[in-house]
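Appendix C: a fully annotated inverse folding record. The material below is reproduced so that readers can follow the format used throughout the book. The structure is listed first as tokens, followed by the designed sequence.
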């Protein structure tokens, strides 16, 4: 990292992600009025009507997996088969294709693209404050706001079923999430200035104080907070590394999930990380100049991204301290076999690492200062880089009771609205959604219908796995 020689990999500085679709200079009140008028052409009833789409589930998944590491596919399939919700989390390509065929307002904002309830979590701000926010941006892009809220609601249905909640309890949870989304957009554009929207707090304690008047935090949140504060590079070193026969600190292997890279790949990544340092701020570049690379492993994580090219890099500083970086392959937003999931806002030129980093920095209140990207011109692959762990933690959704689940869903709705509100065009969204109960009912109906589609897709996937076993 300290070597300042010119890297062999090229950067993507000339492929900036185009944000012009959300840049607008109309007054807020005009944008709100514009949103209200869109209700005439896209009434809530149409937005809430699920339009069935013909597609081959197994072929769609296979198309995405063609770009992944073949040896990891059996383990990926095991993760997808765990539950309907796990399947839903790992196959965003199916819903993305389906959403492209639904009635939409097509009001553009920067969206997560994969805003299910498992993609929110804790992480550290640069000031070491514990934040709770959106934390997965592989599918982030400029798109219609309703893609995010629909995916959030369907995930509430599927996780609610796993928790054993009944129909009315799940509907009440969805209702709270949508109403919170509406209310936060209202506050953002009727009560807050542009700067106040930008500085909107995502500190955990401030959220919980607004949800619970009591002084103590709910038990589940306190437990996660305490756990997150202990997740740092020192903890990673203790958990993931060991001393080799030469007395050097190296990562432990856990094949096929965690394996050391070849010497050739080690040298390639070392060169590319020099390119990565040109995508971060000067203070971070100076910080990283004090480190050298000690070890690199391929380390697969998650559900949907399991099988992509992900690496952990162990860095050692001149004072003997350590830092662990995570490198994740940045694929195109999900594509369905035979069809492009195109929208009026699709872009083909930008580097995908830059797209992910750009959208993350917009949607999150504060982002990892080490967040950056690089492009491998030889392979044509893009990557983004961030700290590994660094107070990153997520809620164990299976441990939530009904009340905590409702609180959690509301906070997800709040964060989604706050993230969307960073796009000036979200004022149009506010005008459209208002505080109308008809919108709430429409979106809940759509999520109910789509959750049934997910169960059908999940069963078709399980049947394909059984068929493969029979052939063997």
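Designed amino acids, in order:
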């Amino acid at each position: 990292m300290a070597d300042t020689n010119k890297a062999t990999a090229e950067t993507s500085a000339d492929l900036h992600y185009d944000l012009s679709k959300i840049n607008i200079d109309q007054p807020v009140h005009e944008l709100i009025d514009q949103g209200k008028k869109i209700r005439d052409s896209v009434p809530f009833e149409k937005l809430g009507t699920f339009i069935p789409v013909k597609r081959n589930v197994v072929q769609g998944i296979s198309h995405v997996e063609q770009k992944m590491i073949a040896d990891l596919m059996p383990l990926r399939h095991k993760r997808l088969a765990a539950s309907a919700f796990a399947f839903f989390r790992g196959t965003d390509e199916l819903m993305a294709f389906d959403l492209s065929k639904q009635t939409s307002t097509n009001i553009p904002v920067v969206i997560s693209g994969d805003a299910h309830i498992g993609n929110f979590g804790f992480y550290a701000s640069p000031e070491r404050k514990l934040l709770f926010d959106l934390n997965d941006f592989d599918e982030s892009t400029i798109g219609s706001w309703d893609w995010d809220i629909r995916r959030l609601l369907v995930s509430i249905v599927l996780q609610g079923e796993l928790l054993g909640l009944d129909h009315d309890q799940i509907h009440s949870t969805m209702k709270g999430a949508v109403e919170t989304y509406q209310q936060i957009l209202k506050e953002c554009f009727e009560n807050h200035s542009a700067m106040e929207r930008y500085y909107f707090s995502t500190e955990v304690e401030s959220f919980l104080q607004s949800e619970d008047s009591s002084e103590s935090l709910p038990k589940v949140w306190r437990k996660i907070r305490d756990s997150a504060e202990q997740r740092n590079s020192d903890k990673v070193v203790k958990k993931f590394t060991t001393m080799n026969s030469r007395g050097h600190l190296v990562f432990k292997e856990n094949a096929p999930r965690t394996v050391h890279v070849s010497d050739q790949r080690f040298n390639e990544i070392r060169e590319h990380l020099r390119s990565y340092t040109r995508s971060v701020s000067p203070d971070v570049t100076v910080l990283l100049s004090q480190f050298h690379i000690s070890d690199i492993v391929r380390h697969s994580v998650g559900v949907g991204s399991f099988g992509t090219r992900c690496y952990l890099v162990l860095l050692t500083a001149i004072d003997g301290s350590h830092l662990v970086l995570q490198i994740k392959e940045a694929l195109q937003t999900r594509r369905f076999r035979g069809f492009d999931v195109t929208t009026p806002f699709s872009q083909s030129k930008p580097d995908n690492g830059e797209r992910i980093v750009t959208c993350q920095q917009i949607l999150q209140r504060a982002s990892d200062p080490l967040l950056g990207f690089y492009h491998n011109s030889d392979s044509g692959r893009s990557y983004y880089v961030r700290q590994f762990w660094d107070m990153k933690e997520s809620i164990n959704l299976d441990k939530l009771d009904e009340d905590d689940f409702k609180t959690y869903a509301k906070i997800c709705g709040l964060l989604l609205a706050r993230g969307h509100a960073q796009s000036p065009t979200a004022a149009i969204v506010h005008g459209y959604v208002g505080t109308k109960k008809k919108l709430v009912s429409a979106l809940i109906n759509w999520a109910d219908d789509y959750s049934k589609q997910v169960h059908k897709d999940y069963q078709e996937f399980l049947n394909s796995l059984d068929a493969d076993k029979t052939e063997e």
